[in-house]
Design goal:
Helix content is 29%, strand content 6%. It is mainly alpha-helical. The mean pLDDT is 84.
């Protein structure tokens, strides 16, 4: 295995310090791809509320909305780029109904 000198390690994040350029590991063992289980729909009596009114969602819309709800208590909700990307993608699945 050929190790690159630290001057060739161009993949470091912007603003990385010189000490960040040292080699931290030499091998990566990958156990393969892990796919999540199939989405299981919520019971039909569970609805998303929009302006206080229940809304019926397709399976795809429900899955995307549930992913967003799961992220609600994370730091992602403070990132405008995450929010913009979510709403742009959610609008796309809304047109599939």
């Amino acid at each position: 295995m050929k190790l690159l000198p630290s001057s060739e390690l161009a993949f470091l994040p912007q603003g990385a310090k010189e000490e960040d350029k040292e080699i931290k590991w030499e091998k990566l063992r990958h156990a393969g791809v892990l796919f999540p289980p199939e989405y299981v729909r919520l019971p039909s009596n569970v609805k998303m509320l929009y302006d206080g009114q229940p809304v019926d969602l397709t399976e795809e819309q429900e899955e995307v909305a549930q992913m967003f709800a799961i992220m609600k208590e994370t730091d992602y909700m403070k990132k405008q780029l995450f929010l913009d990307n979510f709403w742009n993608d959610f609008k796309k699945v809304q047109h599939h109904s």
